[in-house]
Write a structure and sequence with these properties.
Rossmann fold; binds uridine-diphosphate-N-acetylglucosamine; 15 helices; globular; 44% helix; alpha/beta; 2 domains; six-stranded parallel sheet; disordered C terminus; 13 strands; seven-stranded parallel sheet
């Protein structure tokens, strides 16, 4: 079976890495990796390839930044000839970025089946571009690999036939468990003269938080207040860095000397920092999941989450951006009263293996179907639910 996997932006790389390792172990899979180039800075892309030991992409589309329509269109224009030339049996997309959506649209129009990893994840907030990307990608996919029972329910509510949905767990947990040893040796916090548990880590990049000067200014004020209680390390996403400068907000930072602004970090450095933090503040989706896996309290600076399982079972607090609420939870954690979470079911480091098993079985079924003279445009045979994992 010939498979093309697509990555484009930072949160994609850690999701495809464990699957690539699994696919490489199966002689029946002929695999190509396409990088759309949505993220292109070395700190947003190259460092993840080296940290995660990902091979060089077979095809790099070099698309870069743009408006939503412009970026999506450029990825589509770049991906279509690749797909037409390679004629794969399956396209694998991960997560919810514009590249995920763009390549799904191209594959669907060329009638190439799509497998979506991280299917069914929903914030129910369509002002988030990622939510649009998730809903459309799932609607177009033939194989939907879900990370949690609630994601299965979301897909069922949207009318996705149950036989397409496979509850496999969270592939980010695979990457994290494979990298934990290497990350632990890094002691990244030492760069700032800090020790384990002596600091908070923050990430901010959602347009809803960083594209409005008032909102970003208020968040920086709040972080300044948190940093009066413990140092806060803030690796800056390029969008956030650009906006801080454009809005003249960097100048406020000297008033909060314990608010440490730094470059974006690679996977291992960030995992090291996150694992040893007292607490994490973030508007990222992936970091909500990663903190629940490593058991570090996470304050999500948003009004909604696409990972409610991390609030219900993990270490995540959905606090929003009200400074009073944020500081109250920070005080609670500093007083040693953080909630004790547990790692959600099937976030056990084995998700990619489960996905590869499903793909292997799907491929066999598909080949037998083709051999028995199915018309070439017949939709692929869907696997019956595998009782252990679906
Ligand atoms: C994208 C994803 C988001 C994900 C985030 C992780 C979409 C809609 N959004 O948001 O889901 O959480 O990546 O980082 O796909 N830039 C650089 N260098 C880069 C990449 C981007 O400087 O390598 C700057 C550019 O100014 C660009 C801006 O960041 O315009 C935004 O990049 P873009 O890929 O459009 O969206 P993100 O905010 O990164």
């Amino acid at each position: 079976m010939k498979i093309i996997s697509v990555v484009g932006a930072r949160p994609n790389f850690m999701k495809i890495a464990p699957l690539m390792r699994e696919l490489a172990r199966h002689p029946d899979f002929d695999h190509l990796l396409v990088h759309t180039g949505q993220h292109y800075d070395p700190t947003m892309s190259d460092v993840f390839f080296s940290d995660l030991k990902l091979p060089e992409p077979d095809v790099h589309l070099g698309v870069g930044s743009g408006s939503h329509a412009g970026q999506t269109a450029q990825v589509m224009l770049g991906f279509e000839p690749v797909l037409s030339a390679e004629c794969p049996d399956l396209v694998i997309v991960v997560g919810d970025v514009n590249s995920t959506l763009a390549c799904s649209l191209v594959a669907a129009k060329l009638q190439v089946p799509i497998a979506h990893i991280e299917a069914g994840v929903r914030s129910f907030d369509r002002s988030m571009p990622e939510e649009i990307n998730r809903v459309v990608t799932d609607a177009l996919s033939s194989l939907l690999f879900s990370p949690s029972p609630e994601a299965n329910l979301n897909l069922a509510a949207e009318g996705v036939p149950p036989e397409r949905i496979y509850l496999v767990g969270n592939v980010m947990a695979d990457t994290l468990s494979q990298a934990a040893g290497l990350a632990a040796d890094r002691h990244t916090f030492r760069r700032w003269g800090l020790g384990p548990g002596e600091y908070a880590v923050c990430t901010l990049h959602r347009p809803s938080n960083v594209d409005d000067p008032g909102r970003l200014g208020a968040l920086m004020e709040t972080l300044g207040q948190v940093s009066a209680r413990l140092p806060v390390i803030l690796p800056l996403h390029p969008r956030t860095a650009r906006n801080l400068q454009a809005f003249g907000l960097e100048a406020r930072h000297p008033q909060a000397p314990n608010l440490i602004l730094t470059e974006p970090l690679g996977y291992l450095d960030f995992l090291s920092l996150l694992s040893e933090a007292k607490l994490v503040l973030t508007d990222s989706g992936g970091i909500q999941a990663e903190t629940s896996i490593v058991g570090v309290p996470c304050l999500t600076l948003r009004e909604n989450t696409e990972w409610p399982v991390t609030v219900e079972q993990g270490t995540n607090y959905l606090v929003g951006t009200d400074p009073v609420a944020v500081l109250a939870v920070v005080e609670q954690i500093l007083a040693g009263q953080s909630k004790v979470g547990r790692v959600p079911e099937l976030w056990d480091g084995q998700a990619a293996g489960r996905i590869a098993d499903v793909l292997g079985a799907w491929s066999s079924r598909r080949q037998s179907s083709l051999a028995s003279e199915s018309p070439p445009d017949k939709p692929p045979i869907r696997l019956k639910a595998i009782s252990m994992i679906s």
